[in-house]
């Protein structure tokens, strides 16, 4: 208990840091994932090929390797002087977007094909059909897997601590180096992660109830 009380500001900053990186990465992953899912079901072959390559490469690349690229390659090529927060967001967001893409694509496939055909017969474009007809219906199916994906994202954010970003794992490493009992450090850190993951689960359960179809 003493380690929590003595270093409460550090735990607070680490908790907020984990919240920040989780939220920003989830938003980036959601935007990219929906966009790439649209590419994967697009009638344009180059877009389908790009979407397939995106998912194949990112899903089969270790997340740690993506962090290494983000922190040691990206600053030299694109964003010189970028903060660890931005670089960690890019690594986590890009990696998670591949899983979001496949979840959204699976949801799109549950919508009857006749829905899209009817929209096209009314003169709607592919983007209009996808955004106004297909995705709203697919959302109900997509919510449960998205919940699991974002919970996994929260736990994956711990890797950012190994690269100097101030989140919960980074705080745990700092206190462990100072000689505090590792069991108590891990206990408080685990409880903090549980709070975040339970909150994500509660939000998605609420969304599922609101968007569920009465049977």
Automatic annotation (TrEMBL):
Single GO MF descriptor: transmembrane transporter activity
TM annotation in the entry: 15-39, 60-79, 185-207
Record keywords, A-Z: Amino-acid transport, Cell membrane, Membrane, Transmembrane, Transmembrane helix, Transport
Gene Ontology cellular-component terms listed: ATP-binding cassette (ABC) transporter complex
GO biological process, one term: amino acid transport
Compartments where found: Cell membrane
Organism in which the protein naturally occurs: Streptomyces lydicamycinicus
Identification of the protein by name: Amino acid transporter
Annotated ABC transmembrane type-1 domain residues: 15-204
Superkingdom of origin: Bacteria
Pfam families tied to this protein: BPD_transp_1
């Amino acid at each position: 208990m003493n380690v929590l009380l003595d270093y409460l500001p550090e735990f607070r900053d680490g908790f907020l840091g984990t919240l920040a990186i989780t939220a920003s990465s989830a938003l980036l992953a959601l935007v990219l994932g929906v966009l790439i899912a649209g590419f994967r079901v697009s009638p344009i072959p180059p877009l389908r090929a790009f979407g397939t390559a995106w998912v194949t490469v990112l899903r089969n690349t270790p997340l740690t390797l993506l962090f290494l690229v983000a922190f040691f390659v990206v600053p030299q090529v694109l964003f010189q002087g970028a903060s660890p927060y931005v670089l960690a967001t890019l690594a986590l967001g890009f990696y998670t977007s591949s899983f979001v893409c496949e979840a959204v694509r699976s949801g799109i496939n549950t919508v009857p094909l006749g829905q899209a055909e009817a929209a096209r017969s009314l003169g709607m474009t592919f983007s209009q059909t996808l955004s106004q007809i297909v995705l709203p219906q697919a959302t109900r199916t997509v919510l449960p897997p998205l919940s699991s994906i974002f919970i996994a994202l929260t736990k994956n954010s711990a890797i950012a601590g190994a690269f100097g970003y101030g989140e919960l794992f980074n705080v745990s490493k700092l206190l462990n180096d100072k000689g505090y009992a590792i069991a108590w450090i891990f206990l408080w850190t685990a409880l903090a992660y549980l709070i975040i993951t339970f909150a994500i689960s509660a939000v998605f359960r609420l969304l599922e109830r609101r968007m569920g179809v009465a049977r």
